[in-house]
């Protein structure tokens, strides 16, 4: 009887195959279009980020500070400083033309000459990561400028006090040139050793697998016809005929899993297309032979177990197309955020990371990471645990009479 | 008017009878609360494993203290041995390891000769813009020690001063580094370091409102199938679905606005309410267009994930990528307009 129920579910799933393929194609198209747009933007639009400068912009000490910032700009984080009126700068920040603006107070020059400090204000625009990076550079420059001034004024004062006829200005400029040389040569102070992908994924690798997982979770919303055409009465009849709830749930989950696996087989193709247009930023997947790529794909398939079980549980708990769509979207957004599918997990607070790690999406990401790095022998435990918990909860809801109804 | 109000009440009542609807209403404040508490936890973009091989070296201690004091994008975890720091990088516990040796001596040699071997060992899994930026922070932390060394070298060479007390007295200008740059947001308030964790809240809540509109379109397709409103005139049959989408969105929009207000992310009550009303109307129109184009629940349910994913990717929710085609999405208009409030 259980086997016949499984066959029946398979037939139902085949009935929704065209529909699911359509969803996958739509998702693929949207992701590849976004990827192509991103790659195109990256190629064509290499304009630096604009930071407006307002207030006492003619100040030569300020110009020196801005020069220091440009010298510090070794990362991809390129900056351009444009002097403008404060109101214009505010409008530029609000419209997204500038990431922020610097307000230089009146009397800044005089204060510097007298050895005092009037703080400049950095007004941030958006609150995204670029604001944090701009702030980071500004703070580093503040340290550099203060220490340089300490040394230069120290030399000037000493030279002036001990011999007013001496070339005190030349001495201080000699020191300034030395600082500039240090700044330009600063990378020689660090010996950078790259150990490569070790026991965890790179930033781009983590984001790539995270986005694939998020796409899979959203793709599950498209499986609504499979669940919503299910007959609640049939479940009770089958129960009466000796097919226990767990067999019904097991058969349906197995079929849903096959559907997810079919989707998961499609997603790597979509991922490969997206990577192709983005120029292969994921180093873990660079230069893989087809057999190696297929091996990684097959090993990574169990990652769909917990996320599919979670989606299955939500379909059981929130019957109907609307309730389930909402629940699945919220599930994807919440898990995607906490597990690091939307932001790299290293950006998140420790507590959120811990929560994210124990969620089904976190367990799936851990498994995917283990597949690529070959490490983490215990990654299968949370995968199986979450699958079991979600299925047990689904059986419980069914047995309590919570039937899915269209 | 009375009849219109009764219609509105009945359409709203239909929404509130569905458990999924209550779920989404509760989700708006819960989502905001979760992101708010995450942001309060504080976070850094890069985690570094720091090792001082000589914990008594003054320059190394100065650098470590400066890194520990910084409130920027770098979180520092101190390790006792280079191997354990390296393991932390390999495990992904840290993004990089910075191993500081006898800095004092090496920086002095660098200042005197202008050449030295690298003074800090950096171990990374990969080099990316964030780690490059973190090294600028490291350079800034190292700079006071380097600056002292350069100053001492010049004073020794040019003026013959080697007395440590005189050197320190001349150098320590009494700078208050923290006050050199102040940070504000556009409203004049202080900008939190972890504000980027809260920046997606408005976008995610906007997606919830859009989802409510799309869900209402799914209900409307069910109504069409059951011929619920067949008895209405043709204009009535056109108007009722649109009205039901807007009415379904309004409570979610109210929950979203309340959540934004509770999180301190609103910018003027009147502007926010008007903008949200316009956004609800835009979402209702999009939902209705999709309902009329797709006609069946299956097709619409298939398009919902794609609409959400596209909105997530193209609108400035997590980052403003400035991609083409974004203008067709209500979420993009809404978020850009909210920046102008």
Question: What do these coordinates show?
Answer:
The complex is a heterodimer of chains A (406) and B (341). By secondary structure, chain A is an alpha/beta fold. Chain A has two domains: 239 residues, no CATH class; 142 residues, D-Maltodextrin-Binding Protein, domain 2. In chain A, helix 3 links the parallel strand 1 and strand 2. The longest helix of chain A is centred in the middle third of the chain and has 34 residues. The two termini of chain A are 25 Å apart. The mean pLDDT of chain A is 76. Chain B is α/β, with parallel strands linked by helices and 341 residues long. Chain B folds into two domains: 186 residues, no CATH class; 117 residues, D-Maltodextrin-Binding Protein, domain 2, CATH 3.40.190. Helices cover 66% and strands 8% of the residues of chain B. Chain B has a four-stranded mixed β-sheet, sandwiched between helices. In chain B, helix 3 crosses helix 6, helix 5 packs across helix 6 and helix 9 crosses helix 11. Classes of the chains: A alpha/beta (406), B alpha/beta (341). Chains A and B meet through helix 2, helix 4, strand 4, helix 6 and helix 7 of A and helix 2, helix 4, strand 4, helix 6 and strand 5 of B. Strand 5 of chain A pairs parallel with strand 4 of chain B, so a sheet runs across the interface.
